[in-house]
Amino acid sequence: MPIAHKNSIRLKDVAELAGVNMMTVSRVINQPNKVAEATRDKVLAAIKKTGYVPNLMAGSLASSKSRIVGCIVPTIDNSIFAETVRGLTENLAQGGYQLLLGQSNYDNAVEDQLVATFLGRKVDGLVLTGSVHSAMTTKRLRLAKVPVVETWDLPEKPIDMVAGFSNFEAGKAVGKYLFEQGHKLICFAGSEDARSSARLAGLQAACGKKAEKPISIRLAAGASFAGGRQVIADLAQTSLQKHMPSAIFFGNDALAAGALMECLARGIKVPEQLAIMGFADLDIAANLEPALSTVRVPTRQMGQAAAGLLLARLSTERPAGKALVKIQDLGFELVLRKSA
Amino acid sequence: MPIAHKNSIRLKDVAELAGVNMMTVSRVINQPNKVAEATRDKVLAAIKKTGYVPNLMAGSLASSKSRIVGCIVPTIDNSIFAETVRGLTENLAQGGYQLLLGQSNYDNAVEDQLVATFLGRKVDGLVLTGSVHSAMTTKRLRLAKVPVVETWDLPEKPIDMVAGFSNFEAGKAVGKYLFEQGHKLICFAGSEDARSSARLAGLQAACGKKAEKPISIRLAAGASFAGGRQVIADLAQTSLQKHMPSAIFFGNDALAAGALMECLARGIKVPEQLAIMGFADLDIAANLEPALSTVRVPTRQMGQAAAGLLLARLSTERPAGKALVKIQDLGFELVLRKSA
DNA sequence: CTGTTAGCGCGTTCAC
DNA sequence: GTGAACGCGCTAACAG
């Protein structure tokens, strides 16, 4: 018995209507210039008439190319990663790729689950945040031989490709600057994730023997404006007497902005009494009063670069040993304004 | 000729190793309780041993269920929509669904392209931002009979389901409040998208004959802190003499925050000289000095509700005429702090 | 430039 | 509780 007509129009239906073979229709869609103009017009007319929309799942199964890239971020409700996702999505779209998004919540077990699912969905590439993954994850990834880009860090042993910057060096640069400004006791206030820790390590490295070891305040991941305010409030209460730091390096600009507000409310003069340094150079930083000194990191560019690396890899006609650029250090930049 | 072994392990390979039929393996994965425990253990062992990862594309093609939901936002690098995406992703994940993300850039033509592609990918549901879409888009959507949720607004003629709030009523509530506070000349400063316009319309409706018609300043979409500062700077220069508004209602909290900063820099007292009202109640609002009065909208909840509506629809066993809740008005709330 | 053949890897359906 | 056939809708590979 012939198959009854289903909901949607199929390639076959279009082919019959146009009086050509299925493959010809397929070619009109995927490689138009390999079809004679007359036939092509006939087919295009049939497509328009039927309102045919190709079933990309079927196409993907047959060609084993999904044109989907997976991306896993700790969380998306954070300007920081959102910018990277934006850059990624935009540049991927130009290559005809779509983005499957996952949130790990800073949890490697969740990340691993997502990686497994994404691999099952046969993504053509994967963009990860950071360089610290579970052993299972890296094993899966190497086994699957999927192009992978790690972002937001500069791993020593990358899984595959990288579009990032060195958190350690960024922290070190901040430390160097602050010590040169004469600060003896510096405080670091940020979350506990690996990248934050790398910046703290950099700060400590810059310190060396020149000053006291930085105080470290670790906040819950995702702490934001309110968290920054709280840091100042706590500091003012507990350590005003002798161990008040003269400078604080925050894990992100939102925290620093909150801190600035609390200083404003308490009449603490920035930077005279307390220097404040942010991280990321969000839109807000330049527009605060006083304007926030911070570290500009290539948020958007990491996404764009990741897309670029992936597209290059995916379009490559077997480079036959030719090494592609795999590691992109996009750097960072100290932006010195008023607050430090 | 038998097919040579490909890269990855297939269901068949696992079945052979376990000495059972393919279907048994499939059942172990999808309906474990329909398989005898002994057989199940054998199969699970084989799965573990081979590191088998099911090809979800093939599964989707066969079952015509992709377990993917598409979501289109104007832009993701904006705390506002990012929150919604977060809520959506999280709740979708609990039902085993993943998120395909698209950015329309406030462009309906781009949105339509994305809808077409997503339909081709056979998404099980679609979440859209706003209620204004191209004719082509709504036609596609109705034809495809895909569950759709519109968010961030309360359309009169929804395509299908809705999880949003009324932008018009929100604007009206702000207007009502500000007029009650004695403001005669109010200014609206926001972007030109449809939802922003609805709020302006609400503001105007609240105005009625009680006061002058609000001044409207339309900003480029995505304008943020810097844009807010600019509004104040422009206003101070051009209309200080006679037509200076006594209150400004901004399209989002970032703009309002920027405005607050510019007032701080210029010595304009808020709210005495100028009342400032934000929109969205971002994390930043409560932590500004002075704290920002704003309209709290259910950003995260819209995402969660959209996921809920979709999951309910997708799991439904033919409700046989039973109407499901399709329109969820999640409301909004005036949050009055110090700035207005 | 166009058509034919043979699956992609899995789930549905119905036997047993 | 388990197995066999068939096809989801499309494209790769090779003819012609």
Question: Could you describe the 3D structure shown?
Answer:
The structure is a homodimer of 340-residue chains. Chain A has 340 residues and is α/β, with parallel strands linked by helices. Chain A has 3 domains: 6-54, lambda repressor-like DNA-binding domains (434 Repressor (Amino-terminal Domain)); 66-165 and 299-331, 3-Layer(aba) Sandwich (Rossmann fold), CATH 3.40.50; 167-296, Rossmann fold (3-Layer(aba) Sandwich). Chain A is built from 12 helices and 12 strands. In chain A, the strands form 3 sheets. A 6-stranded parallel sheet of chain A has the order 2-1-3-4-5-11, with helices on both faces. Chain A has a 4-stranded parallel sheet with strand order 7-6-8-9, sandwiched between helices. In chain A, α8 (167-180) runs parallel beside α9 (194-207). The radius of gyration of chain A is 26 Å and the shape is elongated. The model of chain A is unreliable at 1-6 (pLDDT under 50). Chains A and B meet through α4, α5, β2, α6 and α7 of A and α4, α5, β2, α6 and α7 of B. The structure holds a DNA duplex (16 and 16 nucleotides).
